[in-house]
Design goal:
- It is a single chain.
- With 188 residues, the protein is mainly α.
- 78% of the residues lie in helices and 2% in strands.
- The chain is built from six helices and two strands.
- The protein has a two-stranded antiparallel ribbon.
- The chain is globular.
Length: 188
């Protein structure tokens, strides 16, 4: 099930990365670059929900799709964070927290899979909330302006990305606590 509709949609999130980065090299007004990058991020991030929905609806779930989906999310978020740090719209410390957690939890999940204890680190609601907050914060920071004449997206995005960083640490602690019994059992 390598080339199903849901899997192709997941691939679009990976393909989106150079497109979103490339927008900031276009010779157009900064506000236009911001808007294009924001819309692209929102459209591609929406495929995260849509590919899962379609996989279940079309009965096209696969182990490859289950592997690729979180990888695509992490690539999209991490690349966008690096762009935001480069544009000085996000603190490098936030990016280090979020990217470092993604690396640590991915490694933990890989190790837990090797020892047959994947249920200990199965996706939890806290991780989903963290991802949702990130997916709201990033477009606000990409837009970096006033939305509808009312919302300072830089201010809101900054608050949300810091909340996301806190949720990131919290979810990492949660997963590590769940894994500690297995780690202790095998550390002998």
């Amino acid at each position: 099930m390598f080339l199903t509709i849901p899997t192709l949609m997941t691939w679009t999130r990976i393909v989106a990365i150079p497109l979103i980065v490339g927008v900031f090299y276009l010779n157009i007004a900064p506000a236009e670059r911001n808007l294009i990058a924001t819309v692209m991020f929102i459209v591609f991030a929406a495929t995260d929900w849509l590919d899962g929905f379609l996989a279940r609806r079309l009965n096209q779930t696969s182990s490859f799709g289950a592997f690729l989906d979180p990888v695509a999310d992490k690539f999209l978020v991490c690349a966008s964070l690096l762009v935001l740090v480069h544009l000085q719209r996000a603190d490098v410390f936030v990016a280090l927290i979020i990217i470092g957690r993604e690396i640590a939890i991915s490694a933990l999940r890989e190790w837990m899979a090797l020892i047959g204890a994947t249920k200990s680190v199965a996706v939890h609601m806290l991780g989903k909330v963290k991802t949702t907050v990130q997916m709201i914060a990033i477009p606000f920071l990409l837009f970096d302006g006033t939305l509808l004449g009312l919302i300072n997206t830089h201010l809101w995005g900054t608050w949300l990305i810091w909340i996301s960083a806190i949720l990131t640490v919290w979810s990492m602690v949660y997963y590590l606590k769940k894994a500690i019994p297995e780690i202790r059992a095998r550390a002998k």
